[in-house]
């Protein structure tokens, strides 16, 4: 057996539309095909691949992160991203990795899942 890569993350939400709005409207994922699974939700895509499954209508755990600390996405255009987050009133923490110089932006989705966005070290932080 060999693991070839990550397929997707699944997040639970109490508000499907707000969660879709965050991942689509703010982060730029795209809603795509989702089979009829018999419960509400959405599949969101990046680069033609379904990378995030959202499930609504189930009870949320007391700690929204459970044993999963965060999910990370590769991203581009750091200044535009921080502008979108600010416009949406979403707080974030921007850090630079010491050795690689990669920009790491951390924020939370509407249900409390921690999200990391990784930007190339050559990007400018702009006015953060």
How is this structure best described in words?
This protein is of the alpha/beta class. The chain has one domain (9-58, 68-119): Roll (2,3-Dihydroxybiphenyl 1,2-Dioxygenase, domain 1). Helices cover 16% and strands 33% of the residues. It has helices at 16-26, 78-87, and strands at residues 9-13, 30-32, 41-46, 49-56, 71-74, 93-96, 103-108, 114-119. The chain has a four-stranded mixed β-sheet with strand order 1-4-3-2, with helices on one face. A four-stranded mixed β-sheet has the order 5-8-7-6, with no helix packed on it. A hairpin with a 6-residue loop joins strand 6 and strand 7 (103-108). It starts with 8 loop residues before the first strand and ends in a 9-residue tail after the last strand. The mean pLDDT is 90.
Characteristic terms for this protein:
128 residues; alpha/beta; 2,3-Dihydroxybiphenyl 1,2-Dioxygenase, domain 1; four-stranded mixed β-sheet; 2 helices; 33% strand
Summarize the structure.
With 128 residues, the protein is of the alpha/beta class. The longest helix is centred in the first third of the chain and has 11 residues, at 16-26.
What is the number of independent domains? Answer: 1
The count of β-strands is 8
State the helix count.
2
State the CATH superfamily name: 2,3-Dihydroxybiphenyl 1,2-Dioxygenase, domain 1
Strand ordering within the main sheet: 1-4-3-2
Task: Using the alpha-carbon principal axes, give the shape.
Answer: globular
Radius of gyration: 15 Å
Taking pLDDT < 50 over at least 5 consecutive residues as the criterion, the unreliable ranges are none
Kindly, what is the distance between the CA atoms of the first and last residues, rounded to a whole number of angstroms?
44 Å
Share of helical residues: 10-25%
Per CATH, the class reads Alpha Beta
H and E order: EHEEEEHEEE
Category by helix and strand content: alpha/beta
CATH architectural designation: Roll
The biggest sheet, with number of strands, parallel, antiparallel or mixed sense and barrel status, is:
4 strands, mixed
Averaged pLDDT:
90
CATH topology: 2,3-Dihydroxybiphenyl 1,2-Dioxygenase, domain 1
Estimate the strand proportion.
25-35%
